[in-house]
Amino acid sequence: MDGNGRWAKRRHLPRVAGHRAGVAAVRSTVETAARIGIHAITLYAFSEENWKKRPKSEVDFLMRLLGRYLKAELPTLNNNNIRLEYIGRRRELPEDVQERMEWARESTAKNTGTVLTLALNYSARSELVDAFRSIVKAASQNGGVEHLKIDEDTIREHLYTRHLPDPDLVVRTSGEMRLSNFLLWQLAYAEIYVTPTLWPDFRGVHLLEAIAEYQKRERRYGGLNGDSHAQPRHPTHEKAVN
Ligand code: IPE
Ligand code: MG
């Protein structure tokens, strides 16, 4: 979700006005995803870098906005059968925010539709570091590291995203052509869609445009044109957009 600051600047507003305006974009996008039966949508709300490199006043604003969002949007999430999850180093967030996050997660835990995962204080490299640490810890509790066997499934099971299939499509707003430390392992075969639309202007209709573009792509997973064997090693969830 990029471009909030530029959206505000164009209107001669403070940056935080762009963040506030971004909430309507989240609501519209998430509701549309749920309505068309997307299995999972993950929003990069803020990175570890954002948190460490932005002025405290902006970070504090984002924290308050998140707390308010979780409370105000809960009915929308429940009405749309959306289950909330998180990825990122949660324990570094303010305690009251963590409590609100847990409360919102539990309040949607029974929902069976779209999984909405918020990436908060997230960094893909930190996720991999945490996964490796967790693998070694699990091994040392289970007979020692000398018997440890590691394959792709081992790593997958220790990522924050173990509840999710790999994404089919990544949408980046505001025209930036970077992954910015987002889901580096999981995006190995994802289709990338970059739109110049700034996040506060993004709506469900833009998601539909991205999906229409995605549907024109040919996914080969390293195989050849028209090759019926071209499949992901781990097929994505059957309800995912395919
Ligand atoms: C994205 O908008 C929102 C967050 C990272 C929280 P930015 O704040 O990065 O907006 P730009 O990139 O300065 O326009
Ligand atoms: Mg930005």
Structure in words:
The protein is built from 9 helices and 5 strands, in the order H-H-E-H-H-H-E-H-E-H-H-E-E-H. The protein has 242 residues and is an alpha/beta fold. Residues 237-242 have low confidence and may be disordered. It binds 3-methylbut-3-enyl trihydrogen diphosphate and magnesium ion. 3-methylbut-3-enyl trihydrogen diphosphate is lined by residues 1-6, 46, 50, 62, 174, 199.
Proportion of helical residues: 40-55%
Q: What would the principal axes of the Cα set say about the shape?
A: globular
How big a fraction of the residues is strand?
Answer: 5-15%
Q: Ends: how far apart?
A: 23 Å
Reported for the largest beta sheet, the result is:
3 strands, parallel
In N-to-C order, the SSE pattern is: HHEHHHEHEHHEEH
Low-confidence stretches: 237-242
Q: What is the number of helices?
A: 9
- Class by helix and strand content? alpha/beta
Which distinct ligands sit in these coordinates?
A: 3-methylbut-3-enyl trihydrogen diphosphate, magnesium ion
The CATH topology label of the domain at 15-164 is: Undecaprenyl pyrophosphate synthetase
Return Rg in Å.
Answer: 19 Å
Assign the CATH architecture of the domain at 15-164: 3-Layer(aba) Sandwich
